[in-house]
Amino acid sequence: MDKKFTINVDGRDHTITADPAMPLLYALRNELGKKGPRFGCGLAQCGTCTVIQDGVAIRSCVMPIAAATGKIRTLDGLGTPENPHPVQKAFIAEEAGQCEYCISGWIMTTVAMLEENPDRSDEEIRAGLEGLKCRCATQMSILRAVKRAAEVMK
Amino acid sequence: MNIRSEQISISRRDLLKGTAALVVTVSVPGAVQPASANTVTGHMTRLLDPTVLDTWLAISRDGRVTGYWGKMDMGQGVDTAIAQIIAEELDVHVDNVDIIFGDSGTCVDQGGASGSTGVRNSGVAFQAAAAEARLVLLEKASAQLDVPLDQLTVSDGVVHAMSDPEKSVSYAELVGDQLLNASIEWNGKFGNSLSLSGRAKPKDPADYRVVGTSVPRKDIAGKILATTDFLHDLKLPGMLHGRMVRPKVAGARVRNVNKESVSDIPNVKVVVENDFVGVVAPNEWDAIKAAKQLEVNWDESNAGFPTTSEELFSWIRNATPAHSDVEHDEGDVAAGLEGAARTISAEFEWPFQSHARMAPAASVADVRDGEATIWTDSQKPWDSGTGAARLMAEPVGDRRPGRPLYKVRSIWMPGPGSYGRSDAGDGAMDAAVLSDAVGAPVRLQWMRHEGHAWDPKGPASVITCRAGIDDSGKVFAYHYHIKGFSRRDQNSRENGPAEVLAGHLLGHENTPEWVMSRPAESYGFPNKRYSWDALAPLRTQASPLRTAHFRDPYGPEVHFAAESFIDEMALATETDPLEFRLNVVTDERDAAVLRAAAELAEWEPRTRPRRKRDSSGNFIGTGIAYAQRNGSVNAVVAEVEVNAKTSRVWVRRMWVGSDHGLIVNPFTLERTIEGNLMQATSRTLFEEVKFDHKMVTTDDWNSYPILESVDAPLEIRITHINRPELGPRGAGEPTTRVMPGAIANAFFDATGVRLRRVPFTPERVKEALQAS
After folding, report:
1. d(Cα B336, Cα B346) in Å, to the nearest integer?
2. Residue B301: DSSP 8-state
3. Cystine design at B657: which of A88, A99, B290, B596 (Cβ 3.0–4.6 Å)?
């Protein structure tokens, strides 16, 4: 049975009527028109759908909308073309990624990780990004971008 | 079959990407592209005729240049490279060049993304077109300024007299928003082999100012700022969401479908035709639920596979070939092996592998009233259009009636990376069938299990290598033989109903092609034979194991075996592997990349495995491999660490000697090479499609793991050898094939154990180390 939910995304409240079991991802994309979080697996195995809830990177493809009670941030709300987030700036400068389908997951995971603590070793950065998939296999450029962003955010 | 072209209605055009473009296209069986079709772009009417210069280039009133490109960029910056080539020849600033591509309505089919030919072939065509356009513009300027042609020059799109810079006219003033009205010579071919030539001579590479520089990728910022629309963001009025319903046993047929089983989900429509089963609903989540819930009674007799992934390689060894051939035969290998002082031999095994794109197939199709628009992320959108047109039109026995050919426009939008004939082509056809059935635009999305289990696969094979060594310790006979599945159970172009899953399900007969592969190198053994046996597919119709081109088709498989075996020859002849290669390669470019990679790696000669250990007791080793590919040649040295406790193989460093001919953009070339090396590393270390007698069982990322950030090397270093005189030779694939052999050879140097079966998983490594 559909129910009404109010979710807070990129600083705004939105009221959505949906099946409580529907994953947050479908609300973000179909109801709110967000482009950043994307469907990759629906199984929390690839990270393409990653958004930040209350400072923590989560997989919106498996989180029921009923559980999305915190403040949600998506790539769409992260920065603007005039004022990109430091992580976006670094990803652009390094031309990180290739097809960029998965890039929202990498950026949002990086944002959550570096906002918590930007002072991380190479190994900690690699471990912090574990579980994210990139089929174009562009981890080298992504890692360079994350390190570049970390330097700026320190 | 005649080529027809007609305009599609204005009302539909506003829905199309780039609303300024009204366009037309046609899809015709057997033919790839209409000879002419009227298209209106911006303020001018263009003809889609390859012999007309305006088909390729347009100059607007504000001085911007647009190139209409018939190939694709899948994220490697190829469109940026094309913009550089156009800017170079036209003498305009590269920031003023826009590239439109992937739209069958505005761009002539140059083959889509295919065979690393983006820059190699279409770049050269645009070089000719842009040079010709510059000449045409200079002629117009000469008349207008009353200055002889040879006394004019161009800077940043402004033509001026050499003697008097004040005497000038800009391209925009000359032809802005108007047609160039000039022709260019066309070789009469569409696809990869399309070429153009004009009266104008392209620039001497010595004068290049834009080509050879690291212009940033044009697409990157919009994608990172979430302002670019991907295919998945497209929403049309009245659009419905579609999902497919697949059987649990490969090749199971539909007995009946209980449509009532989803009647509790609002507005769901069930689409069933022959063995094609899908659901459509206004709400995406409802479509997902309905696809799971729909009760289908499947007939599983005659379904499944005759073998399993566990028994695959003995099955391949024992199978009767469907077709055999010899691709290279030099000297007398049989006599050479017979008369050898000693012979060595080895067998190498490579499993089926999955494209496994970041997202499974998706497409939006609007099929109505004899017209269709297909939005796809396929790397061959022209073929998607032709395929959809034929799928709608062609009959199946007396069950599915034939219909007049549909007018189809196919438009590419960005999607997950594509590395050959992935599931994208299948998704576009599923969307078309669903839309046709319900009479509304349908956005089709496969689920993850389909992306892994039902996408086309890279083929499995067993490769046998034998060498004869003479009394003096020289290899003088070499026989390479590959036995495995064809790399094209279905064509790499989704341009017909037999080439796509939906076509099979509707009842069109698949007709496999027999295509294998051989090593590409310049080894000068006096007796050398490359032969193959191709096997019939394990299932012909609607098979989850149907093969199709997967990045560098058969390249990594073939060169894993061939380059491992070269090291085995080196060992048998007590020669350092680098020295062995340098002794027998006959092409100086090959020797140059080998030396370049070895120099970066500070290669230490060895005639037996060194079995080095680091302070933690892990095995460390380096290995080299090299290969040619269609005019490019690369060598790589890999350094691996084999963990003594976990048996994990980690490629810590990669050093590359790279020769891709002319370098157009060093920065994007470097990233393209990195992606090749890393994806090939993933395929070597992690990837194997598993299946039982019923179905592919590796149907998600847990069962089909790929390389992750923790597996990335510490360093990749590349020495680029630029060869402007050769022109661009293509970089999308050539460094994929060198990686597996280098890793295997490094593993041998580290441990003294030869791995001959991919992937090198910890379980298999442990087994191999214990057996030694």
Report:
1. 17
2. T
3. B596
As a whole number, mean pLDDT of residues B399-417 equals 93
- A76 → closest Cβ in B226, B285, B682: B226
Task: List chain B domain ranges.
Answer: 32-204
Do A68 and A111 fall into the same domain? no
> Does residue A128 form part of some domain?
yes
B 637-696 residues with CB below 8 A of A? 667-668, 671, 674-675, 677-679, 681-682
Total domain count for chain A? 2
Whether residues B225 and A104 touch (CB distance < 8 A) is answered with no
Confidence of residue B44 (pLDDT cuts 50, 70, 90): low
Cα four-point dihedral sign B737, B739, B743, B748: positive
Helix (H) or strand (E) segment spanning residue A69: none
Burial B168-188 (b: 16+ CB within 10 A, else e): bbbbbbbbbeeebebbbebee
Give me the pLDDT at residue B6, please. Answer: 31
Residues from chain A contacting residue B75 (CB–CB below 8 Å): 97-100, 136
Contacts of residue B88, defined as CB under 8 A and 6 or more positions apart, other chains included, come to B127, B130, B203, B208, B209, B210, B211
Chain B hits for A42, Cβ within 8 Å: 447-448
Asked whether residue A90 falls in the same domain as residue A113, the answer is yes
* A62 touches B at CB < 8 Å: no
Where in chain A does DSSP place strands (E)? 3-9, 12-18, 50-53, 56-59, 71-73
Residues A70 and A126 placed together within one structural domain of the fold: no
* Residue of chain B whose Cα is closest to the Cα of A83: B225
Whether A80 maps to a domain, the answer reads no
Does A56 reside within a domain?
Answer: yes
How do residues B284-322 score in pLDDT, each as one tens digit? 999 999 999 999 999 999 999 999 999 999 999 999 999
Q: Domain with A28 in it: what CATH number?
A: 3.10.20.30
Residues A105 and A60 in one domain: no
Fold held by B32-204 = Aldehyde Oxidoreductase; domain 4 (3.30.365)
* Beta strand pairing call for B65-69 and B57-59: antiparallel
As a dihedral over the C-alpha atoms of residue B103, residue B105, residue B110, residue B112, rounded to 10 degrees, the angle is: 30
> Do residue A138 and residue B675 have CB atoms under 8 angstroms apart?
yes
- Domain stop point among A49, A74, A99: A74
Interchain CB distance below 8 Å, A30 and B356: no
Reported pTM: 0.95
Question: Contacts of residue A29 in chain B, CB cutoff 8 Å?
Answer: 232-233
pLDDT value of position B4: 30
Indicate if A137 and A116 belong to the same structural domain: yes
Interface of B with A in 390-429 (CB under 8 A): 414-419
| Residues of chain B with C-beta less than 8 angstroms from the C-beta of A38 | 230, 232, 359
Residue contact B448–A40, C-beta within 8 A: yes
What pLDDT band is residue B449 in, cutting at 50, 70 and 90?
very high
> Is A81 inside any structural domain?
no
What's the CA gap between B610 and B749, in Å, rounded?
5
**From CA A28, how far away is CA B327, in angstroms rounded?**
54
Are A56 and A95 found together in one domain? no
Q: Which of A101, A104, A139 sits opposite B359 (nearest CB)?
A: A101
Together in a domain, A129 and A95:
yes
- Cα distance between residue B268 and residue B481, in whole Å: 53
Out of A23, A36, A130, whose CB is closest to B709?
A130
Residues of B within 8 A of A40 (CB-CB) are 358-359, 416, 448
What range does the domain containing A105 cover?
86-153
For B225, the closest of A34, A79, A98 (CB atoms) is A79
Q: Which residues of A touch B710 (CB under 8 A)?
A: 126-127, 130
Both A121 and A146 in one domain: the answer is yes
pLDDT tier at B45, thresholds 50, 70, 90: low
